Amino acid sequence: MTPADRLLLVALVALAVLAVPITRLAAGSSAGTAIVRGPDGRSVIDLSENATYRVQGRDGEVVLRAVAGAVRVDSSTCADKLCVRSGALRAGRPIVCAPNGVTVVFGRVRGGELDAVSR
Amino acid sequence: MRSRADISAQELALAAALLAFASCLGLAEATMLPPFPVPGVRIGLANVAVVIALVTLGGRWCITISLMRVVVVGLATGTLLGPVGMLSAAGGAAAAGVMLLLARSRAFSVLGVSLGGSVAHVSAQLVVAVLLSGSTAPLLLLPLSLALSLPSGLVIGYSARLLLSRLPSRSLSAV
Question: Is the separation of the CB atoms in B114 and B153 below 8 Å?
């Protein structure tokens, strides 16, 4: 390793460490609801209810399952299924289905309706 | 003395071999290895061939092989024209571009170049994920993505250095 290599490695590790508190602050915490954003708009799902939600993505359908205050992707039409493998939504760890253009984060939307999510 | 045509043929042969190598590694990773559960993060085995191309053939071939590899793997997996193809192309182009810049500075070894390429790959894919989703939520994955891309970049860099040490010295050229 050259000195420049070591400097780059240290800088990138520092960037990763510094990004943790910043993204945690931006992510918020579980407020009993989650915001689902898809190509058709933004919606709120109530995590206190056990339910299944279907979101229309770019490539097909993303099925979300809310159970015991947690939400995860049950199935998705995307090729890599990273969203299914990523598990339940956590603070600072949003659910992202990039191919379908669907994201899920903790939060509230004033006057939010289930306009893009069908149950 | 070798003619210009001979040198071009040698370059072309090495570039074709590296493209085949990159495509095989990319396909093996796409079909056999379980991906990290974070968009954009992967081991990036194909980058071994791209780093070797950068050192042996220079920046033009490095970018060409990186993008052609995306096309070959995308065609083979049926993801070329979809969002996954966009993510791959963005990651490949960003990684090749950053690696070229780092290599041209002459301050970094293959390890540093690979490290920069790995981080650029992940960062570009997160940006494309933001564009595809219309949400900044994918950026929340930045710390985890960076943390996973650093060991990947080092592993790829060490692998490329090992393979480069086995190549005949006459096939190595300045970047």
Answer: yes
